[in-house]
Write a structure and sequence with these properties.
This protein is of the alpha+beta class and about 220 residues long. About 40% of the residues lie in helices and about 10% in strands. The protein has seven helices and five strands. Strands 1, 2, 3, 4 and 5 form a five-stranded antiparallel sheet that branches. Helix 2 crosses helix 6 and helix 3 packs antiparallel against helix 4.
């Protein structure tokens, strides 16, 4: 379990674009995903699996357009605020893999869009948290189940810039919120390793913000 949790990566450059993904595997992973908890046991989730080549290509076009806008904005923000060098090498690898995915999103053999009934923008913050808290655990369970079967995925949200267009393309009702877009494929190369992260002590407060646990 620890290995699964620490090596489930956002797979972008290593997605195998040439190998088909069996629908039976996706259905088995979704059976696992819907065991996740939901607020009030509402179970308002829905997963749109996109296998049609034309629809995947169109979503890929929209994703690429959104990525171009996002990348331009990101460059301007970095130029303004500057960045430290602590993880510069890792950041550049992530940037390159994100660019690769943007170029090839429409070519992935399968996409999954996790959805939840309800519209977050019409809700108070507490209710919004409950809405997303009812789809995110299931989506993460889905990614873990895929990883356990030799498939890679990546949590992406840039398609939401064109949420209405994609909803129309896929027939998603107006009262449903799209939470993410997962490109899904077998991965190439060897196994994955745990990623480099900041020390957990720097990210944890005890009893009050910024307070460290005495040792």
């Amino acid at each position: 379990i620890d290995k699964l949790l620490t090596t489930t990566r956002s797979v972008r450059k290593r997605l195998d674009l040439s190998r088909a993904v069996e629908p039976e595997i996706i259905e088995a992973c979704l059976e696992i995903a819907i065991q996740a908890p939901t607020g009030g046991n509402s179970q308002g989730w829905h997963f749109v699996v996109v296998s049609d080549a034309g629809k995947r290509a169109r979503i890929g076009e929209l994703y690429r357009e959104s990525f171009a806008i996002y990348a331009k904005s990101g460059r301007e923000q970095r130029a303004t605020r500057g960045e430290g060098e602590r993880y510069e090498g890792q950041r550049m690898r992530v940037v390159k893999s994100a660019v690769h995915l943007a170029k090839h999103m429409g070519e992935v053999p399968l996409m999954i869009i996790p959805c939840i009934h309800g519209r977050a923008e019409k809700m108070a913050q507490m209710v919004q948290a409950g809405l997303y808290g009812s789809i995110l655990p299931a989506t993460w369970s889905l990614m873990l189940a895929l990883r356990a079967r030799g498939l890679g995925s990546a949590w992406t949200t840039l398609h939401l810039r064109y949420e209405k267009e994609i909803a129309e393309l896929l027939g998603i009702p107006d009262d449903v919120t799209q939470a993410a877009l997962l490109p899904v494929a077998y991965f190439t190369g060897e196994d994955f390793r745990p990623a480099r992260r900041n020390p957990v002590q720097e990210l944890t407060s005890w009893d009050s913000w910024g307070e460290r646990r005495e040792t």
